[in-house]
């Protein structure tokens, strides 16, 4: 495969549908619609479990890459100087929304998983991802 760098996932999807590139690894939020419409063929998902909306699409682990997991994630952040009471209020509001029927439906319709948690949970997640991917990049001699 030849790596083709894109400034955004949308153009990579467009070029894959149009046949300018043979494949893309992209966020499920961008690929789900075309996969369900049949304009893209979903080959595998990079999570450890199959997606409910694409139940016949295997994980990369099932496709022969044991231990592989790569998930895209989104977070809500604020400037470092944001007062802790505002951070706490925002965090509580977001966690509450994720538990409502509307919040659940919204996230589920995007084939995403709800996580929620505390600001400390997010910091720990970011640190663990940096450590994991940093080690992988070092082992693969990827310039940093």
Keywords for this structure?
144 residues; mainly alpha; 46% helix; globular
Total beta strand runs:
0
| Largest sheet descriptor | none
Along the chain, the helix and strand elements come as HHHHH
Unreliable stretches covering 5 or more consecutive residues:
none
Total of DSSP H or I helical runs spanning 4+ residues: 5
Q: In terms of structural class, how would the helical and strand content be classed?
A: mainly alpha
> Helicity level, as a percent range?
40-55%
Radius of gyration: 18 Å
Shape: globular
Strand content: under 5%
Average pLDDT:
93
Please report the distance between the alpha carbons of the first and last residues: 21 Å
Strand and helix map with partners:
Elements: H1 9-18, H2 28-37, H3 84-99, H4 101-109, H5 119-139
3D architecture notes:
The chain is mainly α. The protein is globular, with a radius of gyration of 18 Å. The longest helix has 21 residues, at 119-139. The protein has helices at 9-18, 28-37, 84-99, 101-109, 119-139. The chain has a domain at 84-139. Helices cover 46% and strands 0% of the residues.
Describe the structure concisely:
With 144 residues, this protein is mostly helical.
